[in-house]
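Example record

The entry below shows one chain as it appears in the dataset: sequence first, then structure tokens.
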Amino acid sequence: MIEKVKFFLRLTGNNLWQFRTRNLFSVTIICLSFLTVGIFMSLSNNLRDTARELSSNMSVAFYLEPGLSPAASDAIRQEISKPAFVESVKSVTPAEALERFRTSFPELADIVAGLKGNPFPPSLELRVNAKASASKEVVAFVEGMKKRPGVTDVLFNQDWVEKMQGFSRLAGAIGAFLGGILILTSFFIISNVVKLNVFARKNEIEILRMVGGTNLFIRIPFWLEGITLGLLGSLLSLGLLFIVIRLFPVYLGASLGALQELLRFRYPDLTQAIALLCGGAATGFIGSATSVSKFLKV
């Protein structure tokens, strides 16, 4: 048994090297296919994590009328503190809001510097319990407070959570669609490469049959070639994906501005990386097996 395994591995290695040019082409196509899937998967990971972070830190900002009396402001504060889903309420003065804006958006600091007064109104920030962040009770409460006298506007980041989740699903769908097309292309390329290898080794196959080689014995090296090509391509795609994620912020980060956090890539986790490797191996195996079954007359 061990000798057979050694024979198969040695034969597979020799064949991969002998037809290295066409095999390199196959690996390149597989790499590009799974790199496309990996890029959109990484973007989807970031959007999903952003949505999760926003959901766990759900907050509502109630903007108050400028010049509102302390008594009226305190009454609104007490009212929004009553619901059970409220974790905390914090008052934010116009000066604090202006300083936050300058810190968060330094590239826009010149805009507010040219204004005569402070454009930011006083506000009350409410932190929502994570378990109740998406409940209808919170939404109904926010809608009711929008009509409350003394409240000029309400900013509820649930919309952002839903948008991030939607963008995450969209990125995943686009990645699956484009990657699926390229993976299908890889499948046909591997199938044709194995087909050429079968024809090139026709005499060798006939000799194996003459000395008693079974159908399975002849097919196994071709299956191993396909699996190896798929694994090499998907493994190389993970390496290139790591480089892309490292270089992307360097070359495009500054120009993206506020979108930098949303378009940041998060490297696939261990489960996703293993799935990509298994997908590459499966693509190679199916392409190889299909070609052998169709063109190898054994």
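Notes for this example: The longest strand covers residues 86-92. The CA atoms of residues 219 and 292 lie 7 Å apart.
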